[in-house]
Amino acid sequence: MTDRPAAQHEELVLAERLGGVLLLTLHRPERLNAWTNALEDAYYGALLEADADPDVRAIVVTGAGRGFCAGADMEDLAGVGDATDEQIDRPHPRHLPLTLHTPLVAAVNGAAAGLGMVEALYADVRFASPRAVFLTAFAQRGLVAEYGMAWLLPRLVGHGRASDLLLSGRRVDGEEAARIGLVEHLVPADELVERAVAYAQGLATSCSPWSMATIKSQLLLDAERSFAESVRSADALMRESFRGSDIAEGVASFTERRPPVFAPLTKEI
């Protein structure tokens, strides 16, 4: 199934190419993949490399061992009260995954807590097993809803549920997460990564990279637009799509009953 040997980003993030899909695994299993600056640098570096590679058409992220990401490493967080703004700031914005052109799928296999839950929400689509556990934890650590979670969470589960999860920090298992719309796909634990990769491979082989990147941008920008503004923007993008090559290939592949062969994404959206 693997096209080439796994690569490693300082052993903190494992990368495996599976056709047009890149599988990234957060790799601090002894700490439930707790977030550190080094892990962030490795993960975000891998995302940027993938986004710049026209042969990577979808990305899947999961965690090694029993956790997805247990949030900020408490050993690092212990001294944060004495940190300067320069020490807190990072090279890349924390919402970097939202800015990718390439679809990002999260396969949440265990605890996704605090910053780990934020990273799961940054994915475009979430798969989870019943063993997954989501919790915000911020209020229980004397923190706030960090890195845009107060914007993201209500849009997924509604204001009331977002208030509940953020204020209480209570645990939400995979089944409840699926029921309230926090994840889109609930699958057995032993099929989680395989199913998430299969979904991503469907995107990679059947969908136009230009269309997916444009739709991702529409979803993000339209969250703050009026309906009329969304329609005007979509009309301009539709006209642009009519002048592109992908619509011809999409129609031809349908009428000829064959898989489409879309051009790689080579321009900014």
TrEMBL record:
Keywords: Lyase. GO terms for molecular function: enoyl-CoA hydratase activity. The keyword Acetylation does not apply. It comes from the Bacteria. CDD domains: crotonase-like. The keyword Lyase applies. It is an enzyme of class 4 (lyase). Its EC number is 4.2.1.17. InterPro entries: ClpP/crotonase-like_dom_sf (IPR029045), Enoyl-CoA_hydra/iso (IPR001753), Enoyl-CoA_hydra_C (IPR014748). PANTHER family: EG:BACN32G11.4 PROTEIN, ENOYL-COA HYDRATASE. Belongs to the enoyl-CoA hydratase/isomerase family. This is Enoyl-CoA hydratase. It comes from Aeromicrobium erythreum.
